[in-house]
Amino acid sequence: MFEPPAPTTADRMLAAQQHAADQFGLRTTGRRVWGYRGRTLSAAAGPHWLRVVCAEAGTEGGTLWDGPSASRALPASVPRPDLFRIRDWTTDTYAYRAELYAFAPDPIVSPRPVLDADPGLPEAWWKGMIAALDALADVPPPTDREAVREEYLRRIIPQFTGHQADAAITWSTAHGDLHYGNVTRGPHILDWEGWGRAPYGYDAATLYLYALLAPETAARIRTELAAILDRPEARTGLLTVAAQILQAQDRVDFYAELAGPVREHLAHL
């Protein structure tokens, strides 16, 4: 998903991946999938999917570290690969966690988080995604997990969009990173490390704004998810995603590509 990190980081993570595969009695194959700056490394491992995450020793734990394991408490109606096993270990300088998942039976929608062309999603995808968002919204917002912090969104929304967040925010449970590299054509939703409380409509807004470079798909999303996006309380969720894109445009290429269409959308909000 991201470019490989610096060689020293890549070598360290590849060694950690090999260690994890050995612990599970598996061998990794196929394409390597890197996380941002090499924080994670994933690949197929036999009939499974192996994900390795790292943190500086002593800083492991917390929302992102425990997100995938905590997501096992979500209802089965939220489609995601089963997490079978977890293995932790540490070195003098780094902590590692290996997670062994069921292999998603269908490919991801896009190798990049954003769409730049219509992916030709089947009708079953639209029905499945609407059902998944509905099922997730039915989960009471967790008290110990925040996908988006209120103080953060109240700062970045006016700073980057020129708008204000609603005085009273409606909160719901969200995946928190529902882009097209984290959704398969099933759909199955991948990468649950950041799930938690977010402003209502946050996930639907992510799907919509991340499709603006593919207008046909964006228009379809706007129609299919109208029951969410047209609700007044979804405004803050949409503004939060827009602000995050504009905030990151100088350091992430695909956000820079989205910045113009996002500003145009904000002008008509």
How would you portray this structure in words?
The chain has 269 residues and is α+β, with helices and mostly antiparallel strands. It folds into two domains: 7-102, 2-Layer Sandwich (Phosphorylase Kinase, domain 1); 123-267, Aminoglycoside 3'-phosphotransferase, Chain: A, domain 2 (Alpha-Beta Complex). Helix content is 39%, strand content 17%. The chain has nine helices and seven strands, in the order H-E-E-E-H-E-E-H-H-E-E-H-H-H-H-H. The strands form two sheets. The protein has a five-stranded antiparallel sheet, with helices on both faces. The chain has a two-stranded antiparallel ribbon with strand order 6-7. Helix 5 runs antiparallel to helix 6 (215-224). The radius of gyration is 18 Å and the shape is globular. The mean pLDDT is 95.
Brief write-up:
Helices cover 39% and strands 17% of the residues. The chain has 9 helices and 7 strands, in the order αβββαββααββααααα.
